[in-house]
TrEMBL record:
Protein species of origin: Palpitomonas bilix
Pfam families referenced in this protein's UniProt entry, alphabetically: Phosphodiest
One Gene Ontology term of the molecular function aspect: hydrolase activity
Keyword Signal attributed: no
Name of the protein in question: Uncharacterized protein
CDD domains: Enpp (cd16018)
Transmembrane segments: 22-45
Keywords carried by this UniProt record: Membrane, Transmembrane, Transmembrane helix
Superkingdom, natural source: Eukaryota
Length: 453
């Protein structure tokens, strides 16, 4: 019986006058004591701390974090030394957080393969984006980075990007440009994304990211990508040592400052993990370092989509009776000490570039700074001033990695040399999600993050 019912019974006895005074006194005393005890316990229960209270250290409010992955296309790892003082904001990020001396791209060190590797953790042979332009013999189609139809077709893109893994885990994501983000890979797109438009100013891109992060918390993305290509464009046009590259560095640095100040104004700078990377480096080219492939083979016999630095050679359809791959190999092998001919299965194992049908059966791999071309193409277009795509271990191909935020170590920690394949595991750890299957290791996560347990 409850205490309330005890109190009512005793009051009735008092009114009846049939009980002795002492017994009545004791009954009333214990009834009043029980009621007081209930009131005290109820008040204590209402005022004691609760695990679901907003002030609890385990609340979702306290765990609120955002991750922004920014790509500065073509930003070589040693540009800080080549062009000193051109990126003060980025250098301040390095002093505040962690940075790598060099981040090693995958082979080939080109834009689309490496951007897709950064978000999937897969080598090119595993994710299938083997170049910026290539041919698929099963699709009987060519992929080109400038083709809207191709970049939005999910069948070209293998693996699972980190934003898809995050969306599947219940997080909201957004991409203000990133190769692959326009395609529904695995049936999943970022909640918010923009179709690439190179004419959009960097300031507009930054403001777009900030606008996403100013949305109501239920709609706000917790993972965002941002892409800037200025440094790469100037590196191609003028070479890595040009003043124009230094000016482009200042341009992207101003965009980073705008981003960081915007995060501060919105009160989320201290809650944001800012990861700045590039996809590859850059090296200078010369018209004196050109291998003319048509001096050695009949171009009517071959089908080539991408010439350099990795030249994919197939026998043209209908010309199979004119020449064999072995004959082509014999003509090209040793033709120039700076151009290396390989049958697909004989490529160095460290390239991880054998096991995909989109890799041609015969390839030429140019040494750093060398170009494969035809005489007609050379006479028509010449040679650009700078490029990439070479051996991913060449120092000139080295990329950047800098990060700061609540998940990262602080104080300008140099983590040495890392590989871009490892970033997906690091980002998954930050977001507390399972990473997609990948070829990476836990090195970047262990070196860069505060809590690596």
């Amino acid at each position: 019986r409850s205490a309330l019912w005890v109190f009512c019974d005793c009051a009735d006895m008092a009114r009846s006058g049939t009980e002795k005074p002492f017994i009545l006194f004791l009954s009333l005393f214990f009834a009043i004591f029980a009621c007081v005890a209930i009131v005290v316990l109820a008040v204590a229960a209402q005022t004691s701390p609760s695990s679901s209270s907003p002030s609890s250290p385990t609340s979702s409010e306290d765990k609120e974090e955002y991750t922004i992955l920014v790509s500065l296309d073509g930003f070589r790892h040693d540009y800080f030394d080549i062009h000193p003082g051109k990126a003060p904001t980025l250098e301040s990020f390095r002093r505040d957080g962690v940075y790598a001396d060099r981040m090693v791209p995958i082979f080939p060190s080109k834009t689309f393969p490496n951007h897709w590797s950064i978000v999937t953790g897969l080598n090119a042979e595993s994710h299938g984006i083997v170049a910026n332009s290539f041919y698929d013999p099963v699709f009987d189609e060519e992929f080109h980075l400038w083709s809207t139809r191709a970049v939005r077709n999910a069948s070209w893109w293998g693996g699972e990007p980190i934003w898809a893994a995050a969306e599947k885990s219940g997080l909201t994501t957004a991409c203000y440009y990133w190769p692959g983000s326009e395609a529904p890979v695995g049936g999943v797109r970022p909640t918010y994304y923009k179709a690439f438009d190179g004419s959009v100013p960097l300031s507009t891109r930054v403001d777009g990211v900030l606008n996403w992060l100013a949305l109501n918390k239920t709609a706000r993305p917790s993972f965002v990508t941002l892409y800037m290509e200025s440094v790469d464009h100037q590196g191609h046009s003028y070479g890595p040592f040009s003043n124009e590259v230094g000016e482009a560095m200042s341009e992207v640095d101003a965009a980073l400052l705008r981003l960081n100040e915007g995060l501060r104004r919105q009160g989320i700078e201290e809650k944001t993990n800012l990861i700045i990377v590039s996809d590859h480096g850059m090296t200078d080219l010369s018209p004196n370092r050109v291998f003319f492939i048509d001096d050695y083979i009949d171009m009517k016999d071959v089908f080539i989509v991408d010439y350099w630095p990795v030249c994919h050679i197939r026998i043209r359809r209908g010309r199979e009776g004119n020449v064999t791959l072995d004959e082509l190999f014999e003509k090209l092998d040793g033709a120039n000490p700076h151009i290396h001919a390989y049958m697909k299965n004989d490529l160095p194992a460290r390239f991880h570039f054998r096991s995909n049908r989109r890799i041609a059966p015969l390839l030429l791999v140019a040494d750093l700074g060398w170009v494969v071309s035809t005489r007609s193409n050379f006479n028509r277009n010449g040679v650009i001033s700078g490029s990439h795509g070479f051996d991913n271990e060449d120092l000139d191909m080295g990329a950047i990695f800098t990060a700061k935020g609540p998940s990262f170590k602080q104080g300008g920690i140099n983590i040495g040399t890392i590989r871009n394949l490892d970033l997906v595991n690091m980002m998954a750890a930050i977001m507390d999600i399972h990473p997609p299957p990948n070829n990476g290791t836990q090195q970047a996560r262990m070196l860069a993050l505060k809590n690596t347990e």
